[in-house]
Design brief:
CWC27 protein, single chain, mainly alpha, elongated
Length: 188
């Protein structure tokens, strides 16, 4: 009888373990399904966002094509487009660094092209331009002013002695120089 009870207990433990395994499998399969669904939703959101951006850009292109007949309006639309692009660029995340580096590269290219194009343009054309690119091609020249470097070991006419008149050594020197001057005057 004892052997039968032990056998039953073992079988009960086995059935409990299999039910726990099945429960864990259901849990893991459920979590996998939720992950897949989350990925799917992210893809759909990104696709919807891209479609929205494409439609906005298409509408802007159509507007610029229809209103470009008047030069003042076209200038206004260009500036508006420039500032809307700047507003779009301010996204956070890993793409922010890429955008910043792309802006830096564009600026470097613009600067190098302005430097190479500068000798070709006339001064009158640069004055009439309102695009603020004149500063990019400007070359800064300084007058060469060689500075005199004074060496402490070399005695020049510009070198001055610095001494304290209260110092006893300096007092003795002054007295000696006064005596020498008196002797020179007496000789003459």
């Amino acid at each position: 009888m004892l052997a039968k009870k032990l056998k039953k207990d073992r079988s009960d433990n086995v059935t409990k373990e299999t039910s726990n395994d099945m429960y864990n499998e259901k849990k893991s399969s459920r979590s996998e399904e939720l992950r897949k669904e989350a990925r799917q939703l992210k893809r759909e959101l990104l696709a919807a966002k891209q479609r929205k951006e494409e439609t906005v850009t298409n509408l802007e292109k159509k507007e610029t094509e229809t209103k470009a007949s008047n030069p003042a309006v076209s200038e206004y639309l260009e500036e508006r487009k420039k500032y809307t692009e700047i507003r779009k660029r301010k996204q956070k995340g890993s793409s922010r660094e890429e955008q910043t580096l792309a802006l830096l590269d564009r600026f470097k290219n613009k600067l190098s092209s302005a430097i190479t194009e500068a000798p070709e343009k006339d001064a009158e054309e640069l004055v009439n331009d309102d695009d603020d690119k004149g500063w990019m091609s400007h070359v800064l020249h300084f007058d060469d002013q060689t500075r005199k470097v004074k060496d402490a070991n070399v005695q020049d006419e510009d070198t001055f002695e610095i001494y304290d008149p209260r110092n006893p050594v300096n007092k003795r020197r002054r007295e000696e120089s006064k005596k020498k001057m008196r002797e020179k005057r007496e000789r003459q």
